[in-house]
Design a protein that fits this description.
By secondary structure, the protein is an alpha/beta fold. It is built from ten helices and 14 strands. α2 (88-98) packs across α3 (103-116) and α2 runs parallel beside α4.
């Protein structure tokens, strides 16, 4: 288990991370989210030992994280960290050796992963000759070459088309099934919803939302009603309990304060014609994220 307990980080007088606590269990995918500058990268760097904490404790399976532990960690950074003049083979050997692996072990694992990512033909090509998407595949391979027990993924789908996003997702799920602890960070909330069981949202280094996603969505009182039919936006907006009405290409999305107002909207809609859809949905994680982050900035 990864434990981050009351961790604080100052850069001089600047507070980058403020009393942050969370745990990630084996076989769990955990979301660490926030806008740019929220403290995510600083937190990642403290976890892997690149930065010292000002206060608090970070342990992996009960041990402080030092060079005796980092060989069991994989980190995919948001920034490109590849040496572009090296070949794919040279680059992965370099990273594997840094993780304490033997060259023959690295090459066997590399062949397996290149095949999995459908890029076996690029083994002896220089990194700079690859597309952005294929460079991202190589960067991911360098992060998992050592079969990490803790895998940190910062914007892992950058530069990928939908087919390759699906491929990455399947590999991440394989590591979850193997029992790896995975920390996942992305600005794409739909990806977070697909993957993560628990999350923390940071604003200015401080947690403003944390817990299991299913509980967060349940506790967030606002609901959305999706309507298709001959209704009028201004009449919907005038109903008590309606917060907002949005017209999309095909539907009306009616945001209500909570479920107690569903009947009032339904009583209006049943008087209208050509109604083909009336669905009450939980808010998306994206809506909740924007709401909570916005509240924190306003506060």
């Amino acid at each position: 288990m990864l434990k981050v307990e009351h961790v604080t980080k100052y850069y001089g007088d600047f507070l980058a991370v403020d009393d942050l606590s969370f745990t990630v269990k084996e076989g769990e995918i955990f979301g660490l989210l926030g806008v740019n500058g929220a403290g995510k990268t600083t937190t990642f760097r403290m976890i892997i030992g690149l930065l010292d904490k000002t206060k608090g404790e970070i342990t992996l399976n009960g041990k402080n994280i030092d060079y005796s532990v980092t060989d069991s960690i994989g980190f995919l950074t948001e920034e490109r960290s590849l040496l572009t003049k090296l070949t794919v083979k040279e680059q992965v050997i370099y990273y594997g050796i840094l993780k304490g692996m033997k060259e023959e072990e690295i090459l066997a694992k590399l062949d397996e992963l290149l095949a999995k990512f459908n890029i076996s033909e690029y083994k002896n090509r220089k990194i700079k000759e690859l597309s952005k998407g294929n460079q991202q595949k190589i960067q991911f391979i360098t992060a998992i070459i050592n079969d990490p027990k803790l895998l940190i993924l910062d914007e892992p789908f950058s530069g990928l088309d939908p087919i390759n996003v699906e491929l990455f997702m399947n590999v991440i799920k394989e590591y979850k099934e193997k029992g790896s602890m995975i920390i996942f960070s992305s600005h794409r909330m739909e990806h977070v919803e697909l993957f993560c069981e628990k999350l923390v949202v940071l604003v200015n280094g401080r947690s403003v939302l944390s817990g299991k996603i299913k509980d967060i969505k349940k506790e967030y009182r606002k609901k959305n009603i999706i309507i298709n039919g001959d209704v009028k936006k201004e009449e919907l907006a005038a109903i008590k309990g309606v917060v907002n009405v949005t017209k999309t290409a095909n539907d009306y999305i009616v945001k209500i304060e909570d479920e107690s107002y569903v009947d009032q909207v339904f009583n209006y809609v049943k008087k209208c014609s050509n109604i083909t859809k009336f669905t009450v949905e939980e808010p998306s994680l994206n809506e909740i994220f924007i709401s909570k982050v916005g509240e924190s900035y306003e506060g």
